[in-house]
Amino acid sequence: MGLGIRLEQGRFYPVLICDTCGAPITDWHQGLAAHDLRMDEGIRPINVFHKGDCDPERAGRRSEEASGWQGLRMYLSWLLWNNGWGRKYQEPPQGRKLLIDVPEPLDLG
User: How many domains would you assign to the chain?
Assistant: First the structure.
């Protein structure tokens, strides 16, 4: 997955980097996480892309290892939930909710 860090005004901010164009994905509705669809068990790597022109599938070029995909909104939400990051609670009938405390960005100094 294209993890990166942006330095801005002396502070570090984590970002997701598109594996095609190298630019940050600033809107999770405009990104996708591509993964292997093969049915064997285990952990597979994820590639992240901007939807549209950056997605190799648009040109029929996404490899088998990245043949399936989920929107980043779904992927990142479930990543946090499945790893127990944040505080989970159920709110019927709306379903699962997750609350995350976000620390201040890291300073250079």
Answer: 1
Kindly tell me the sign of the dihedral angle through the C-alpha atoms of 95, 97, 41, 71: positive
**Do the bridges between strand 106-107 and strand 11-16 make them parallel or antiparallel, or are there none, so unpaired?**
antiparallel
Mean pLDDT by 10 residues, the chain (109 residues): 85 90 93 79 84 76 64 88 82 78 74
- Torsion angle, CA of 24/45/99/96, rounded to 10 degrees? 120
Q: Is the pTM of this model over 0.85?
A: no
Look up the domain containing 98 and give its range: 3-107
Count of other CB atoms within 10 angstroms of residue 24: 17
Q: Any long-range contacts for 81-86 (C-beta under 8 Å, 24+ apart)?
A: none
